[in-house]
Amino acid sequence: MKLSKLAKFEGGSVGDGILTLLAATIGTGILMIPNSMAASGTIWSVVQMVFCAYLSYFSLMTMVKCADEIHVFSYQELALHTFGHWCRQAVNIASFFANQGSIILYLKLNVELFLVIDVLFGGHIFPSWLTTPDNKMLPVIIATVLVLPLSISKELKALRYFCVLNVLFVLFFCYVVVDQAFDYQPIVDSFKSTSFVLWSGFSTTYPSAVFAYMSHNNILDVFKELKRPSLRKMKKIITWTILFVLIAYSIVGILGYATFAGNLSILSDVKISNGIILIAYGYTLDGVRRAYPYAVIICIITMFLSVVISQPYNIKPSKDSLRSFFKSKAGSNPEEKSEESSVKRFLYVLVTLYTAVLVVIFSESAQTIMNVIGSSFFSMVCFIFPSMFYLRIYKEKITMKEKIGHWTMLIFSGVFMVCNTAYNVLGAFGIISS
């Protein structure tokens, strides 16, 4: 008997599920997509985005099918039920670092956007000591005042209203990119300078594409919060979410890249930006400062808030991985209600958040962080582990076509992960030119 007939969960409709998964998926990495697309060219970048969209749909459905078959709603417990304690610990490590990578990126974006907002208002809103570019306390203050209060909730459904707000912010960002593509300079001139295929950009674009669809640690929360959970509903939720994300990223990537194709250094070399396209609108194609359009100013503020709202969706699975890692070998599901005190849960949140803050304080490039973690731990969490689970759980029922598909996923994802991670790590240490 299927899960939908055995269990009842409080939750919402399919629409609620789509909004929650969208908020967990379409993060503020979208700000850096145009810079990533510039590395590979329009056609090659879109191919990678579509390829990763299909892989993500395939792996998300794989996880839902596995959960429905053995009635387990935690990524870590799927690992425990299929391969045992060692696999659960491997999932804990990969999930922790993958989500920590997202938190680090988001905090770094928060700091950069905060400094830009201060400049936009003449530097008179915040104290001067707070807005110096090398201020080590700014990430701590943002994390403590804005991120931490949103991150102490036990369940994602507590953030449902913030999901709606986050999606609206991202839609407004897409509108601004489209508007500026036609207003910044003639659109025909913009596309004249674009490249279609740059094979060397794979090591930059592919990790960004993997990161773009990272919602695997949240998918089972969405499943269990449905009123009447079923595979049919989850297929609809996943399909619409992936389609929306693919369209949004393609529009922002292509038009954002085309706008600055005449001088890509504006996207990549502005010291404060790390490839954030909104900051680039404050420069002409000659690199001269100009006044930000009002729509861009509003969008910078809303995307700053969007970055804040996105972080609990990574802090929760990262915290759960940390808790699960320190449980006993026969430990229980970290999603189940236990006797663990509120103080202990809060301490896990603090460790998760402030280890990321420390990295932000001492790291230089958000793009490098996303490249390395995106090509390694994201690949494990998104593509490799789900197929491993499916092959073990359905080993008596699986068809030859399914077996070939999942083994292909494992082999190609593993090869891409090893090669791309090695390339990005060597590039990060300056051993090779990346």
Tell me what the structure shows.
- By secondary structure, the chain is mainly α.
- The chain has one domain: Amino acid/polyamine transporter I (Up-down Bundle), CATH 1.20.1740.10.
- Helix content is 70%, strand content 0%.
- It has helices at residues 3-6, 14-25, 33-40, 42-70, 75-83, 85-120, 138-151, 160-183, 187-192, 202-212, 219-224, 231-259, 265-268, 277-280, 294-310, 312-325, 342-362, 366-375, 377-393, 400-428.
- Helix 4 (42-70) packs parallel to helix 10 (202-212) and helix 4 (42-70) packs across helix 19.
Q: Please, how many helices?
A: 20
Tally of structural domains: 1
Could you say what the CATH topology is called?
A: Amino acid/polyamine transporter I
What does the radius of gyration come to?
21 Å
CATH class: Mainly Alpha
Name the poorly predicted regions. Answer: 1-11
* Secondary-structure element string: HHHHHHHHHHHHHHHHHHHH
CATH superfamily: Amino acid/polyamine transporter I
Rounded mean pLDDT score: 81
Strand content: under 5%
Largest sheet: none
